[in-house]
Amino acid sequence: MDYVNGPGRNHLFVPGPVNIPEQVLRAMNRNNEDYRSPAVPALTKTLLEDVKKIFKTTSGTPFLFPTTGTGAWESALTNTLSPGDRTVSFLIGQFSLLWIDQQKRLNFDVDVIESDWGQGANLEVLASKIAEDKSHTIKAVCIVHNETATGVTNNLATVRKILDHYQHPALFLVDGVSSICALDFRMDEWGVDVALTGSQKALSLPTGLGIVCASPKALEASKTAKSVRVFFDWGDYLKFYKLGTYWPYTPSIQLLYGLRAALDLLFEEGLDKVIARHARLGKATRLAVEAWGLKNCTQKEEWFSDTVTAVVVPPHIESSEIVKRAWKRYNLSLGLGLNKVAGKVFRIGHLGSLNELQLLGCLAGVEMVLKDIGYPVKFGSGVAAASAFLQNSTPLIPSRI
Amino acid sequence: MDYVNGPGRNHLFVPGPVNIPEQVLRAMNRNNEDYRSPAVPALTKTLLEDVKKIFKTTSGTPFLFPTTGTGAWESALTNTLSPGDRTVSFLIGQFSLLWIDQQKRLNFDVDVIESDWGQGANLEVLASKIAEDKSHTIKAVCIVHNETATGVTNNLATVRKILDHYQHPALFLVDGVSSICALDFRMDEWGVDVALTGSQKALSLPTGLGIVCASPKALEASKTAKSVRVFFDWGDYLKFYKLGTYWPYTPSIQLLYGLRAALDLLFEEGLDKVIARHARLGKATRLAVEAWGLKNCTQKEEWFSDTVTAVVVPPHIESSEIVKRAWKRYNLSLGLGLNKVAGKVFRIGHLGSLNELQLLGCLAGVEMVLKDIGYPVKFGSGVAAASAFLQNSTPLIPSRI
Amino acid sequence: MDYVNGPGRNHLFVPGPVNIPEQVLRAMNRNNEDYRSPAVPALTKTLLEDVKKIFKTTSGTPFLFPTTGTGAWESALTNTLSPGDRTVSFLIGQFSLLWIDQQKRLNFDVDVIESDWGQGANLEVLASKIAEDKSHTIKAVCIVHNETATGVTNNLATVRKILDHYQHPALFLVDGVSSICALDFRMDEWGVDVALTGSQKALSLPTGLGIVCASPKALEASKTAKSVRVFFDWGDYLKFYKLGTYWPYTPSIQLLYGLRAALDLLFEEGLDKVIARHARLGKATRLAVEAWGLKNCTQKEEWFSDTVTAVVVPPHIESSEIVKRAWKRYNLSLGLGLNKVAGKVFRIGHLGSLNELQLLGCLAGVEMVLKDIGYPVKFGSGVAAASAFLQNSTPLIPSRI
Amino acid sequence: MDYVNGPGRNHLFVPGPVNIPEQVLRAMNRNNEDYRSPAVPALTKTLLEDVKKIFKTTSGTPFLFPTTGTGAWESALTNTLSPGDRTVSFLIGQFSLLWIDQQKRLNFDVDVIESDWGQGANLEVLASKIAEDKSHTIKAVCIVHNETATGVTNNLATVRKILDHYQHPALFLVDGVSSICALDFRMDEWGVDVALTGSQKALSLPTGLGIVCASPKALEASKTAKSVRVFFDWGDYLKFYKLGTYWPYTPSIQLLYGLRAALDLLFEEGLDKVIARHARLGKATRLAVEAWGLKNCTQKEEWFSDTVTAVVVPPHIESSEIVKRAWKRYNLSLGLGLNKVAGKVFRIGHLGSLNELQLLGCLAGVEMVLKDIGYPVKFGSGVAAASAFLQNSTPLIPSRI
After folding, report:
1. B261 to chain A, closest Cα gap in Å
2. Chain A residue numbers touching D371 (CB-CB < 8 A)
3. Average of pLDDT values for D370-378?
4. Fewest CB within 10 angstroms: A293, B162, C193, D197, which?
5. What range(s) does the Aminotransferase class V domain occupy (chains A, B, C, D) (predicted)?
6. How many CB pairs under 8 A join B and C?
């Protein structure tokens, strides 16, 4: 029944789905329950309250859709916009491309700001578009906080500043799929109107929850948005929130308990410490890449992502061979290069429930794969660079002192 | 962390979500995996092949959406129809009502054939509408195979006969949420164009998979259907089927392995034997209801459902009190009466991974609750009626002989 | 990989091993840990403190041996007695027989007081032996609190009274394997010197922990007891207790966490309420047996066991056929008649994590099996008798109010 | 409920208990079962047959005791020897010391051959003792195959040669706790009379099974051996083997299914390949230790252990500080130095379900801890030495090609 064997543990370093902590696996190891009993609403209530903390919002309204990130995108867009509405969207990699594709297919008028893959969103162009848009034809600015395909993190605070500077009322929609719970994200402070993530990313759960959070302004917009929606409609949820039964249709009992456990772990470690841990592991990974003499796909430090690093391979190497080899020989799962960067980069995901030694094992594995594939890496070089940094910066684990 | 305690096992007799077999819980007790490795496609391939068997189709194309039954409805409709298209739909209970509501919100022109709650779909009216529709304005006939709110099973073979008799090309869309894997269902033989179910029903999995199966005619229709769709689009899946990677976005690894285990159990028992078991348990439940002197909400035997029985309570009793009491005192989860039959019926779900003694325990529990609530039930009467039938009709468990 | 299949849940009504609550299964679903880290001693400390509560002792010292009840017996005897020591032991069924056999093989001089199987320990004979033993040649009185083979509960308070009356210093050793956590047991009040149980009984864990509790007098005796012992030696444990590392050899991490969860559940329900629940379920079972016109193997009410009922079948029926049939046809596990009562009785275990509806399902199953096997049972009769009693006596589940 | 938290996975590198593969965790995630049903014997039969393969015996008789290695020792000794019998035993580290202590407490006349801790068993002294023992007063030679405290593997083939050379009939008893399933072990070829291991070692299960295998000669000896034993008696098992019910007392259902899964994994990988993998990981570890400029506690290459490496720290460093620090800061569990080598060595366990990248992560962790503690390690040096070797020697994972 298993399709992946091999001694020891799998080394899962794709940028999602990520490793699930044992505590979460345990919480989900359960039979179904009647979601109309008093117990499931009681649990749900705590989840809705606590999930706001990962968005850093007090005024937002969260929705736990039984879907994936793609569904969460669709929910964000269809609840706030009407067909024909103009959106501004940034094309900087495969996932922003897919979101733009979705926006087009949902019949929005997408104004695409394109950058090289490896660059961040071009906020100067955004500023000029916003400046020019005196009549407020732009209904929403859609941005991927962290482009998973290239390891690029965009500056959301600047987007807010631009909108505020021009007093532009456009909605601010953010894909936080590979950022929320791992990178600094401040929904209220940055005036984000809809933020969303997926359970299998930094929350370290199985796939199956598309978590969407709407600002009061977004909720207001949903009352008049004419995009067709039923499954993804916020209104149905709000109706059941009022009733105190919460669910317009059947939720996954297992994922609800899993989310409870995942949030408990996050708060126990401390959200800010979780973000600091991601910063530490991200930096260690980049130091290793540098020590190997390889280039980060991300072109400037300001965009470096602490959840995923896309590594550019030399021209004579096919990066998908690295990914294949890692999987077949060392039980190591790395991310492929996608679309424009297919064959040119491989990706190391370093998000979710992860610690220093797991990452160092991965880096040592990448070194062996690089050698396998003919790249003249010096064994231990990346690990040394990463270790030197980590040994200086890793705090004691509070629960163990 | 648990919101439902009490000694011993929960007795889950809502008509979904249902009890998950231990084998399935075990199969899902696993870490995430990279769904882009060669392993997940290999697994997926077996699932897509085998899932066709539960629909009894060889020509159909299945889709495993990370969603619920509501999402599966939306997928069935939006992939085959265009806004303004006329559908014929039967209103016979809460779930057919909700599907009709969805059809309206998706901008179809829904021609509703209403019956009393407790009756089956009025196929005579359908026949006359089909007969009249010489110009083929009806694009689809939408029917819930088994109305979970009232315990009514509709006759799908007759629907097909009507369409064939008038050589009407309308698509035949079937909600099999509480029927497939439990009641006799024959996609190919009955010319069903789209059939769908949810994982938490007779498949006995957690919620999270909306399983949709499309006939070649439905696939053809999807090429021109103009309803807006992205997450639920079949085309995206078909593209990835061709590539052999299968998934346009991240699936739940746990549910894939769970589905593998659930299918293995189904085939091991034998789909026809599973259906026979449901017939046995359904009949036993109805005999108990009769012995208690209570009425089945379903008005005629031809509509009796073998997956759920809605029991009408005497006028002076509030059925929701029965459900509350069962849960609070005996750890027994029953289904509430919904909408029009709220307060008037309670429901016993008898579908999925279930056996004789579990059902008899439930029936004994219902007897105690009835007494609790003031109904003059004779203790043991329902159990006796059910037992006499079951003791005569239950075969030996093949794997134990 | 499974050797027992069949739809739905297994109905496990042997008097151990018993059903494991989901919370306990979850707690045990974990990887190994280093038992020499600071974490395992911290956990162990809470276990040793809390496990005393199930013995109702404050002065006792508990030991968690990685063994079974048979090993716990051996630990109780070899730590307190020397070869040739005279013990008084009661032969009333298969398990007391096995313990006596062990005592003989460990070279004690066993003075056996035999009763009919179905009777309790003959305490009058004990009294006369104690009265006569002026020179205190009797070193220990060994008694099985609850004889699992016949469903007989002995009166431990009377044993203590006899010893006290004659101011006899004999050690009082009690097998509480099928009583502790289910029947009223008071180590300190009754002056029990060694009490023991196994994890797979009323604690509702897997097999693997032999839990032994020693009074100060027993500990004192262990200093001079000359029986050979190493694995089962208390001294090795006491040495590690002092060091604060607790384990002379490797414990099962999973069972430690499982025990933690099992104790938490027990205390949450309340030990006295757990005992009351067993009394309720025991009585209900006996009422059913009576309604079937069958005899309880236990000859007097004072000995009726609330954890297991041995049911005598009519002479022309072979009781093992009932057990076989129950397993093969209804997925119901009952206990066989053992040794002297083989073929003559079958046993219904009603201990551990169990509730009313599970038991009623079992009773309904037994009715069908009886009919299968040719006994003219009236369907529903036992269930009715049990239900009438339970419906009157079952309290609301506190955590659900 | 958890006593060990911290983000990411624990890095468990003590020489037992070791990491449990997910497949085994899954197999054990189950409710109890009636061990007297036909299913458990059917499962047990396959286990007894297959477990012989890990001992490389066809003539041996295995026993699966619900106990630990310490209990397995006791079973080996008490079933084959009588009080006063002379044994020859080698004192080379903490575990051989404990076994010798047990032998003494069980009243055997132990003839101890002592070596420096870090040396193997002195087989020359054995040879001279055997040579001198014309009257065959030596009843058993007891040897620890792999001394876990010092990382020393003894040469069992030579022991057999010595016994054969002098045609000495002494029983040959082997503690294979940290060798069997990991190091080359050949019960039949080497004429081992009793071999034993524990489930939490190379079998990668939880603690709880003491697996003992007896040669025909050992079985014969058990008929006359006068050591007192009940729980550990082979005779009771043999009686139940004959009956086909296999268990004299209650086994752990979960461990039986776990053992089934563990054996399936072992045979799937191939026992010889498992042993080769241990050789590879052992060598890699030793290369790292050398690169760090540290000494292996094992004094000669012929004794190097492929399951555990004891690393000697410089005199000014307290090795237990390394172990503490590793656990508190990096979630890394290493083995302490025990007894004579306490404070002087720390141990890296590299046995059981383990792969290259896990080991490299551990080695990187040790480097950071060494630096933490003030040892001037060069970052990456050990990893580089190990990686260079592993990259050359690691085969592709067969199930992934």
Report:
1. 8
2. 391
3. 97
4. A293
5. 16-297
6. 196
